[in-house]
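Project standup — Tuesday

K.O.: blocked on the structure for the chain from last sprint. Re-posting the sequence here as requested.
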Amino acid sequence: MPYKIVITLLTDFGTADYFVAAMKGVILSAHPNAVIVDISHEIPPHDIATAAFTLLACYRDFPPGTIHVAVVDPGVGSTRRPIAIIAEGFTFVGPDNGLFSYILDRELHARVFRLSIETYFRPSPSTTFHGRDIFAPIAAALASGVTIAALGEEVSDPVRLEAPARCKRASDGVWNAAILHIDRFGNCVTNVARDEFPGDPVALRIEIGDHTISRLLRCYADAAANAGELFAIWGSAGFLEISAYCDSAAQRLRASRGSSVRVTIGAQPNLTDEDQQAGPH
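H.V.: unblocked you, prediction finished:
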């Protein structure tokens, strides 16, 4: 049996229209043995940053050789470049609009190519649907063994989002971080990465707006006795999150993506009135 290549799709297309089906049809017509996996098609329309985080959170869960096609493309048909990226055995295909920023932040040896060899596109590509006419056929070509270098020239200036996937620690042990993503439960994912720490911090202090959080819990259920309490947790995507048990931390904090967060790790925190009322845990 021929080796089956996994191709993932991540878009803001939804499922009410024909867009996702058309992309799958193009891929399967060119490569019938492809295994197509939907990461999500419910990215909010035009929300490049949410798509970038979603891809970052799960791309390594797939087998090496996977081709990740991501299309959130408000600049479709304009001068924005179509690109492909190769990084640590994975390939990424989509628009050069910052969507792959977090992948490039993590995969420091990634190589980026502008897709310029039009023989690999569908004939007469639409100016409104590059997902079907450029990115899907490119993914099929890659799955069929075409090398990424055959698709165009290498570039060194891919578009980056303003907020990095990982913040840098200051010399005084303070992290001037930001909220990278807010999930559907209202958890606020910061850009403080778990792999920066060999073990759990002895003490933690998070300041966001006029709130201070100093409790780091192992799992959400550890806060069940204090429903609504704001606490910190290492989330499954590998970042420090601010959460509230069975409640939206984002609403409690009036926070949004990009909100500034000050994280102090290793210093004895000062408990707020809210923390003291919650009691020991």
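K.O.: great, moving the ticket to review. Confidence is low (pLDDT under 50) at residues 267-281. DSSP finds six helices and 15 strands in the chain.
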